[in-house]
Amino acid sequence: MMVSFFDQFASPSYLGIPLIAIAIALPWILYPTPSSRWINNRLITLQGWFINRFTNQLMLPLNVGGHKWALLLASLMIFLITINMLGLLPYTFTPTTQLSLNMGFAVPLWLATVIIGMRNQPTIALGHLLPEGTPILLIPVLIIIETISLFIRPLALGVRLTANLTAGHLLIQLIATAVFVLMPMMPTVAILTATVLFLLTLLEVAVAMIQAYVFVLLLSLYLQENV
């Protein structure tokens, strides 16, 4: 039976029941629950240090009003990193390769930043659609362009995350298939290809973390414009 390379991106199901909900909820179980003790083990200490450092770095350019988003953005960052990293394991499903899931994260959060800007500072929020000093003849054109660019933001967030992870998974599968095909015929070439596969896997680990960080960072920049 011929198996398509894109079958790995199909949502798994068991007895007709989609398992994507389990794939989304399971990563939270892997993290230890912080206790009220003054002295914790090394894992909880490292986890707390990472979350604090990331939150401080993310909230640095925002004013006090934007700090209310710290818990949401930090949780989203950890969630995306965990799902992306678990998706690199063999025989696993990566929910973030689904554009519908990424858009489900991007659209509500982007819309919330826009609504906050329109409610708190409507003049400044609308002023972003027209740069200062624009010639009169270009005003209608620039307003249309800036409005389109504003509505493209959530689409860019979702497509960027989906495309990067999908491309990485496809490359890993293609090169792994080449290693198995070349092993009986040209062992030397197969070993070199396996080395490339190992380096590509390391690159994908970095991409999985970077793309999660970029997703949350761009959301924080959109929030910074409207807070």
TrEMBL record:
The keyword Mitochondrion applies. It comes from the Eukaryota. InterPro entries: ATP_synth_F0_asu, ATP_synth_F0_asu_AS, ATP_synth_F0_asu_bact/mt, F0_ATP_A_sf. Its main location: mitochondrion. Keywords: ATP synthesis, CF(0), Hydrogen ion transport, Ion transport, Membrane, Mitochondrion, Mitochondrion inner membrane, Transmembrane, Transmembrane helix, Transport. It catalyses: H(+)(in) = H(+)(out). It is found in: Mitochondrion inner membrane. Gene3D superfamilies: ATP synthase, F0 complex, subunit A (1.20.120.220). The chain crosses the membrane at residues 12-31, 69-89, 101-118, 138-159, 171-199, 205-223. CDD domains: ATP-synt_Fo_a_6. It is a multi-pass membrane protein. GO terms for cellular component: mitochondrial inner membrane; proton-transporting ATP synthase complex. One of its GO terms (molecular function) is proton-transporting ATP synthase activity, rotational mechanism. The keyword Glycoprotein does not apply. Pfam families: ATP-synt_A. Belongs to the ATPase A chain family. Component of the ATP synthase complex composed at least of ATP5F1A/subunit alpha, ATP5F1B/subunit beta, ATP5MC1/subunit c (homooctomer), MT-ATP6/subunit a, MT-ATP8/subunit 8, ATP5ME/subunit e, ATP5MF/subunit f, ATP5MG/subunit g, ATP5MK/subunit k, ATP5MJ/subunit j, ATP5F1C/subunit gamma, ATP5F1D/subunit delta, ATP5F1E/subunit epsilon, ATP5PF/subunit F6, ATP5PB/subunit b, ATP5PD/subunit d, ATP5PO/subunit OSCP. NCBIfam families: ATP_synt_6_or_A (TIGR01131). This is ATP synthase subunit a. It comes from Bangana decora. The lineage of its organism: Eukaryota, Metazoa, Chordata, Craniata, Vertebrata.
